[in-house]
């Protein structure tokens, strides 16, 4: 249902969260005790499905809920895009149909998740108040007939939306049949140029900087005669206009992120006024790691995500890998969303063929079940799918559901959902919630410090078409997963000491405080890996008034004399021992200090022999600088493998596409590759689901003696 998306523990409770634009007053998350109340550990996970009563003959509703429950679903989801049915005209609300749907769902022991309908304002609203429609940079105004066409920067829309939400919350906030709320749908960032946006941007800037002199300093406005004398002179930047101030553009992205985050926070506060702590509140984000709004709404109890794996966009592994999907897409989303607030769920997981891709192939038989188990393996407490009945009309006609177009026959994906539900129910008697993960697995725990500000700043000024921050991060992430390492994406301020290994990729904007925190982490025994572009700029996005990278030198034990960006048709080479790797996106030229070891050097250009990767001891730990971004990621994997070995951290050697995770006393192995893999279970392990011969799209779940890990 959701075609957008780009870049981007149960092991370590309370792990840190990703650095985002936290610009609203925060309330504490509901906490582990409340998670247990809503999602009991003994249940492992619960499974739900979207239903749109407004799309179907009311005479069919009871049949559908009865069949839904018979397949094993435990909750359903209403009202996502139903504003026109809930408020057919201004100020007149109709909840009778929703009352009936909730009552019928409850008859079959189906809990209900309600969604606010703010992604689809009704036509009467946008015709009477056209200023609520989002306006593009070129002046094009969105119109009715789509979704997500209203602007979060419209003061009227923000205010009016809350009226509907207040009515919903008043009616259902104390309804025990309603377990939780989803806000909006796949909320996005609007770069809106409507009438309210410029004033809201100026107010946001004044709050951020205080004085116009501080803004001029941060934006470097002396450049090209860009100086302002008042906030009233500042307009929204034209991103399509060549040469527009990069710092102004970055602040515009931050502002737009904050508009999305605070729009959701306002909804949550209204619902909580009536629901108290009796119902949870979340939103379903598309996993995007280059924006600041994902996870930034502090009023949500936890964050959930949407994931579609087979849509003609990813090739996966092997000639038919496109039928299974890219194996890191769910893995990375799990490891990103879980640390945000300590718990996560998946609100939309693909049930089969989609309709919105350029090409819409069938998933491989077993792939839907594989994805479900992958979501489970990451620690999710629930998973939901869009949708129960395949739509007969509208933009998403031809999209698969749990049942087909006749409304009753389960699809292949529907049968795999039912299979997964049955397997989980059997595991509820065998799992061991609260059991520690195996010690060898815990020792490999790795944090990846991801900084949204840096990712956005780099995207505005990449310096080379060859650079891609998500691809850069994935080179380390894929290597770690092949080692069998549990990974958390963390933010500054997290307890870094809980991670034996910490990777800091392309963290371009830093300050002395962060540099000191990273030094302390290493001094106290941590294995610190820093990559190229880290520390190039200060927090304002300014280059240091010093030598190149100079504030980082003391930490890495080397000078960075300069960098190179070869042309794509003539990549350069870096050598690590006997192996050589091509690169074309970024290469630092290093000059190690005494006591710093050279691990890799450049070859074949005028700086041949210059170090590219260096490592040193610092206190009880180590600091390694990987100053080059290779095409294959092979160098990055070898560097990590050497570090794990030198630090005495045992690793596995899983083939690409094979993933192994642990939770609730269970091991889970997943195979996204096109080759069979035999999982070598330890003595005494009991197979609960699947077979040790892991076929493509295969799943294996086992229970081992406590603390034992199979060797690959």
Please name the defining characteristics of this protein:
6-stranded parallel β-sheet, 11-stranded mixed β-sheet, 712 residues, 18 helices, 30% helix, disordered N terminus
Q: Please tell me what the overall shape is.
A: globular
User: How many H/I helical runs?
Assistant: 18
Report helical residue fraction: 25-40%
Low-pLDDT stretches: 1-29
Assembly annotation = single chain
Strand content: 15-25%
Describe the fold and architecture.
The chain is α/β, with parallel strands linked by helices and 712 residues long. It is built from 18 helices and 26 strands. Strands 10, 11, 12, 13, 14, 15, 16, 17, 18, 19 and 20 form an 11-stranded mixed β-sheet that branches. Strands 5-4-3-2-1-9 form a 6-stranded parallel β-sheet, with helices on one face. Helix 6 (155-172) runs parallel beside helix 9 (246-275) and helix 15 (469-482) packs across helix 18 (634-646). The longest helix is centred in the middle third of the chain and has 30 residues, at 246-275. The protein is globular and about 80 Å long. The chain starts with 30 loop residues before the first helix and ends in a 9-residue tail after the last strand. Mean pLDDT is 94; it is low at 1-29.
Task: Please sum up the structure shown.
By secondary structure, the protein is of the alpha/beta class.
What is the topology?
Blueprint: H1 31-38, E1 46-50, H2 58-70, E2 75-78, H3 83-86, H4 96-107, E3 111-115, H5 123-128, H6 155-172, E4 178-182, H7 197-209, H8 212-219, H9 246-275, E5 280-282, E6 284-285, E7 303-307, H10 328-341, E8 344-349, H11 367-377, E9 382-385, H12 412-427, H13 439-443, E10 446-449, H14 452-460, H15 469-482, E11 487-490, E12 501-504, H16 512-523, E13 527-531, H17 550-556, E14 558-564, E15 572-576, E16 579-592, E17 597-603, E18 611-618, E19 621-626, E20 628-630, H18 634-646, E21 658-663, E22 666-671, E23 677-678, E24 686-689, E25 693-694, E26 699-703
Parallel strand pairs: 1-2, 1-9, 2-3, 3-4, 4-5, 6-7, 7-8, 10-11, 10-12, 12-13, 13-19
Antiparallel strand pairs: 14-16, 15-16, 15-17, 16-20, 17-18, 18-19, 21-22, 22-26, 23-25, 24-26
């Amino acid at each position: 249902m959701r075609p957008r998306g780009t870049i981007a523990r149960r092991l370590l409770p309370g792990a840190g969260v990703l650095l985002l634009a936290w610009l609203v007053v925060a309330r504490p998350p509901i906490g582990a005790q409340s998670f247990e109340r809503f999602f009991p550990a003994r249940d492992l996970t619960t499974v739900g499905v979207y239903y749109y009563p407004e799309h179907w003959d009311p005479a069919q509703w009871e049949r559908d809920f009865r069949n839904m429950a018979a397949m094993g679903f435990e909750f359903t989801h209403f009202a996502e895009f139903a504003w026109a049915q809930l408020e057919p005209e201004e100020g007149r609300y109709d909840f009778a149909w929703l009352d009936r749907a909730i009552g019928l769902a409850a008859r079959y022991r189906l809990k209900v998740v309600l969604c606010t309908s703010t992604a689809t304002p009704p036509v009467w609203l946008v015709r009477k108040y056209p200023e609520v429609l989002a306006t593009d940079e070129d002046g094009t105004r969105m119109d009715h007939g789509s979704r997500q066409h209203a602007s979060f920067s419209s003061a009227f829309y923000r205010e009016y939306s809350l009226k509907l939400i207040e009515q919903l919350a008043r009616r259902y906030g104390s309804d025990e049949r309603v377990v939780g709320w989803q806000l909006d749908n796949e909320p996005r960032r609007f770069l809106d140029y409507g009438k309210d946006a410029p004033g809201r941007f100026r107010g946001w800037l004044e709050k951020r900087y205080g004085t116009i002199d501080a803004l001029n300093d941060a934006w470097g406005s002396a450049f090209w005669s860009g100086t302002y004398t008042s906030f009233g002179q500042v307009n929204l930047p034209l991103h399509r206009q060549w040469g527009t101030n990069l710092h102004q553009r970055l602040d515009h992205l931050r502002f737009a992120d904050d508009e999305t985050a605070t729009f959701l926070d306002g909804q949550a506060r209204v619902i909580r006024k009536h629901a108290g702590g009796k119902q949870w509140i979340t939103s379903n984000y598309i996993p995007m790691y280059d924006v600041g709004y994902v996870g930034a709404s502090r009023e949500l109890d936890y964050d959930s995500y949407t994931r579609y794996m087979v849509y003609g966009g990813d090739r996966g592994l092997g000639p038919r890998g496109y039928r299974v999907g890219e194996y890191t897409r769910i893995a990375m989303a799990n490891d990103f969303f879980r640390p945000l607030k300590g718990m996560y769920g998946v609100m939309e997981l693909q049930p089969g063929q989609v309709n919105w891709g350029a090409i819409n192939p069938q998933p491989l038989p077993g792939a839907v079940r594989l994805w479900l188990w992958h979501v489970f393996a990451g620690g999710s407490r629930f998973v939901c799918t869009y949708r129960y009945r395949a739509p007969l009309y509208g933009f998403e006609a031809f999209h698969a559901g749990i049942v087909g177009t006749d409304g009753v026959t389960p699809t292949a994906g529907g049968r795999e959902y039912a299979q997964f539900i049955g397997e989980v129910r059997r595991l509820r008697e065998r799992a061991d919630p609260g059991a520690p993960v195996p010690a060898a697995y815990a020792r490999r725990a790795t944090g990846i410090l991801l900084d949204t500000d840096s990712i956005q700043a780099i995207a505005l000024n990449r310096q080379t078409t060859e650079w891609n921050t998500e691809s850069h991060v994935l080179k380390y992430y894929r290597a770690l997963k092949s080692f069998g390492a549990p990974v958390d994406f963390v933010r500054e301020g997290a307890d870094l000491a809980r991670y034996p290994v910490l990777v800091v990729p392309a963290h371009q904007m830093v300050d002395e405080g962060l540099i000191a925190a990273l030094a302390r982490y290493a001094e106290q025994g941590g294995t610190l890996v820093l990559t190229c572009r880290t520390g190039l700029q200060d927090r304002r996005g300014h280059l240091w008034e010093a030598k190149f990278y100079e504030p980082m030198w003391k930490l890495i034990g080397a000078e960075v004399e300069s960098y190179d960006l070869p042309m794509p048709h003539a990549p350069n080479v870096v050598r690590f021992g006997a192996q050589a790797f091509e690169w074309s996106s970024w290469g630092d030229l290093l000059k190690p200090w005494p006591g710093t070891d050279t691990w890799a050097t450049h070859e074949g250009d005028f700086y041949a022999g210059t170090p590219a990767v260096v490592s040193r001891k610092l206190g009880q730990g180590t600091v390694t600088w990987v100053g080059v971004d290779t095409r294959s990621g092979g160098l990055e994997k070898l560097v990590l493998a050497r570090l794990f070995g030198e630090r005495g951290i045992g690793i596995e050697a899983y083939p690409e596409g094979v993933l192994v995770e642990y939770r609730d006393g269970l091991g889970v192995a997943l195979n996204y590759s096109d080759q069979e893999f035999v999982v070598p279970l330890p003595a005494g392990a009991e197979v609960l689901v699947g077979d040790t011969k892991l076929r493509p799209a295969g799943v294996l779940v086992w229970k081992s003696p406590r603390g034992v890990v199979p060797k690959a």
